[in-house]
From TrEMBL:
Family membership noted in the UniProt record: Belongs to the thymidylate kinase family.
Species name: Diaporthe helianthi
The protein, known as: Thymidylate kinase
Key words of the record: ATP-binding, Kinase, Nucleotide biosynthesis, Nucleotide-binding, Transferase
Cellular component aspect of the GO annotation: cytosol; nucleus
EC number: 2.7.4.9
GO biological processes: dTDP biosynthetic process; dTTP biosynthetic process; dUDP biosynthetic process
Pfam families: Thymidylate_kin
Enzyme class, broadest EC rank: transferase
Keyword Transport (UniProt): no
Protein origin, superkingdom: Eukaryota
Residue ranges of the region described as Disordered: 1-27
Amino acid sequence: MSTANDPSPGTAGANAAAAAADAPSPSPGAPAVRGAFIVLEGLDRSGKTTQVKLLERRLVEAGRRVQLMRFPDRTTPTGQIINQYLSSTASLPDQSIHLLFTANRWEAAPSITTLLSQGVTVVCDRYYYSGMVYSAAKGNPSLGLPWARAPEVGLPRPDAVVFLDLDEEAARGRGGFGEERYETEEMQRRVRGLFWGLKKGEVGGVAFEEEAADLVVVDAGGTVEEVAGGIWGVVRSRVEAVEKGESGREVRKVS
């Protein structure tokens, strides 16, 4: 976990449980202010990993304790199977791999909840939004967004989900594109369309009210500094709202 006195990047995934155990409890009489839960989403090669690290640094400089996480966490038992699938060395039915992605998030849910309850800001590179969107984008008629979302109910709910919007052609032109299973231009086009549907609050006649409320779109086509500025404008206001108790003092749950 990173603090104002420890500017190094925070550990993710497998180390989150240790960070949760190490985080100090609020002192007696201190206000019960929880941490904010911030998620960065986007197409593959949209710059999420870079922006997550920059956001962590900015939050630490502002005096917050921060824990970075990333999904899928490829260090866990489920994550190792997922890694084989994404690198195309293993094949699984669409429903099976989706539920493994979901299980991977549930493995981390207790640590996320503990950290937030202790006032730590959690910054996450991908979360259940990617899980359900990438599964639904496969076009399997028995695996639509409602089916994909159902096993996510009960997970910690983010306070802000920043979608780094980049058209699929621009993503394809960035280094490393095409190395993993989902990195095709057509797949990325469908993923982008579904994210925009969530932002509008409706996909295929089904309402997604929580996602519409939490999701904010930031143009990822600018310079690294420009994108970071757009993200910070969103995150700062959400973090301040959480710290003022305007978003509730209990960790929110996906419902």
